[in-house]
Amino acid sequence: xxxxxxxxxxxxxxxxxxxxxxxxxxxxxxxxxxxxxxxxxxxxxxxxxxxxxxxxxxxxxxxxxxxxxxxxxxxxxxxxxxxxxxxxxxxxxxxxxxxxxxxxxxxxxxxxxxxxxxxxxxxxxxxxxxxxxxxxxxxxxxxxxxxxxxxxxxxxxxxxxxxxxxxxxxxxxxxxxxxxxxxxxxxxxxxxxxxxxxxxxxxxxxxxxxxxxxxxxxxxxxxxxxxxxxxxxxxxxxxxxxxxxxxxxxxxxxxxx
Length: 257
Ligand code: ADP
Ligand code: MG
Prior knowledge:
- The protein is α/β, with parallel strands linked by helices.
- It contains 9 helices and 12 strands.
- It has helices at 47-54, 86-93, 111-123, 127-140, 156-168, 186-201, 213-219, 237-242, 247-256; strands spanning 9-18, 21-31, 36-40, 62-67, 70-71, 74-77, 80-83, 96-99, 174-178, 206-209, 222-227, 230-235.
- It has a 6-stranded mixed β-sheet, with helices on both faces. Strands 2-1-4-5 form a 4-stranded antiparallel β-sheet, with helices on one face. It has a two-stranded antiparallel ribbon with strand order 6-7.
- Helix 3 (111-123) crosses helix 4.
- The protein binds adenosine-5'-diphosphate and magnesium ion.
- Adenosine-5'-diphosphate is lined by residues 18, 23, 41, 43-49.
- It is found in: Cell membrane.
């Protein structure tokens, strides 16, 4: 952990809903630089919605959400909040890598092209340079030997590792993972978690929504339990898991452990 650095995420009483139905009911959540923060909680509790708010894909309707030093969606200028333009949203999102349950790779491109694509088209990296860097990122996730393969020639675990390499190629300051191993066959889960563990060891700031309790215990610096659109409890993973304070947390843990 990078003590003294400004927090990467400070959510204070964050509220959000879809068409009048409230989904986030006042989320308080902080992530320090270099921390791995894991989020667990029942389906429908707002975990994915919260991640989408973090990278500006959903609007925050109340409270304050500061990510990478910015109030997401607004800039304070002349004493007033000015909403971001689409260009400002895009520039902000470039700093945040996102990995989903479904890998969403481009089916007609090789692993290497999938990884090099963002840097070339979004960052303007020269193609040769982007391919060299993409190869390094594929190597980082253990897939240098598979760079030429199309997604359908790779296992689910390998595809997810390509998706992680693709996110890393944009040099993000924050990585968000939304149940990255939930769609994988059980025997492929560990290779993805190992890559994530490596990233954590390198000091990447990460928020990981997961049902992998052992990963949260071993790799997480913090663990937050979401239910009904709020953080019910939060703390060091070992402490939360060994002695949850709330009945909701106990009930959830006994259902997944
Ligand atoms: P989780 O990731 O914890 O399972 P979600 O954030 O996906 O929870 O969903 C929280 C609630 O918001 C659920 O009740 C879900 O049905 C609802 N929801 C999610 N996305 C949408 C959407 N695009 N439109 C309307 N309701 C949505
Ligand atoms: Mg979800």
